[in-house]
Specification:
Layout lengths: L1 H12 L7 H31 L4 H8 L3 H13 L5 H13 L4 H13 L2 H10 L2 H24 L8 H4 L13 H36 L2 H11 L3 H9 L6 H13 L4 H13 L2 H7 L5 H29 L2
């Protein structure tokens, strides 16, 4: 039905030539935008309601339990929170002030923007379920491993003094009713969509342009010129392009369809989602520059390794 409505809008109201590239680009943009916003609203609302049952104080205790288990719990907790890299920083700070170990909080900081419930839905719809699951698993591994490595490096000396001296703070338990749970889910959906709607439009717009105007041969030739270095180059290109995963999924899909290897396209998306220059500026309030550089460096290496792994697994995942 959505396809018919889109065609009616383009043919009857705008009078566009159905065989033109511009028509195809507008059709791509309208159809994907409506589909993405619908999926986002439904899934963020549902996950928001589910999150009202999560015992956040117990999660903090699990995160502080020591060992890699704490890193995994933090990474998993980050995966179910619908935040971009900058939105994750305030929660990262609150976890530090609550007494969670530094490496554990980094696991949260990595996976919170890297994996989201709406990202999983979008990737399953665009790439297919096997690739979406591979992305989620690899993202959890990157967050858990990178946080564990950072935690063992004893980098607390690079935190700002007021963060170190902050006393652990206990949180107040909220008792929800069904009405408050539904309201929480609704408010969560509205809040997140307000934060990312522009990035969704920009991402779909870029995807529509690439899909209809950029020759496949140009992209393939550009990637073949970099050869084995395509994954690190894609990751580094993603870092300054701050935005939500919801914005970059359409771009990653089109790049993959144009012949860019799966792991390379997903490494670009990971770099854009997990690391950003605005995030680095916000983190400067919390930590000194050497720690920011170490955090970005280790996370980047993890994403690059993941990109190469997904390239190797692509024949199995795309069957």
């Amino acid at each position: 039905m959505l396809l018919e409505l889109t065609d009616a809008l383009l043919y009857d109201l705008l009078g566009l030539d159905p065989d033109s590239r511009f028509h195809s680009a507008i059709h791509f943009f309208i159809y994907d935008t409506v589909k993405i916003f619908f999926l986002l609203a439904v899934m963020i609302f549902a996950i928001g309601v589910i999150r009202t049952w999560l015992p956040e104080e117990k999660l903090k205790r699990w995160m502080s339990s020591g060992g890699i288990w704490g890193n995994f719990v933090a990474a998993l907790f980050g995966a179910i929170t619908p935040f971009c890299s900058c939105s994750s920083v305030p929660i990262f700070i609150s976890l530090l002030k609550a007494g969670a170990p530094l490496g554990v909080t980094f696991s949260f900081l990595i996976t919170s923007p890297l994996i989201n419930e709406y990202l999983v839905v979008l990737m399953a719809g665009e790439f297919g379920l096997p690739i979406a699951l591979a992305y989620v698993i690899s993202g959890l591994i990157v967050g858990t491993a990178a946080g564990a490595i950072l935690g063992r490096m004893k980098l607390e000396r690079f935190l700002e003094n007021d963060i170190i001296s902050s006393a652990p703070a206990g949180g107040e338990t909220v008792k929800h009713t069904w009405k408050s749970r539904l309201k929480y889910g609704w408010d969560e959906a509205i809040s997140v969509i307000r934060q990312i709607w522009l990035w969704v439009l920009v991402g779909v717009g870029i995807g529509a342009f690439i899909h209809n105007y950029v020759p496949e041969e140009m992209i393939r030739n550009a990637m073949s010129a970099t050869g084995i270095f395509s994954v690190p180059i894609a990751t580094l290109l993603g870092v300054p392009m701050y935005g939500s995963c919801a914005a970059i999924v359409p771009v990653a899909v089109v790049l993959f369809e144009k012949g860019i290897p799966l792991g390379t396209a997903l490494a670009f998306m990971m770099g854009m989602a997990a690391l950003s220059l605005p995030e680095a500026v916000m983190l400067r309030r919390t930590m000194k520059l050497p720690l920011i550089a170490i955090f970005f460096g280790i996370t980047t290496l993890g994403i690059i390794a993941t990109g190469y792994l997904l390239n190797a697994l692509a024949p199995v995942l795309t069957r």
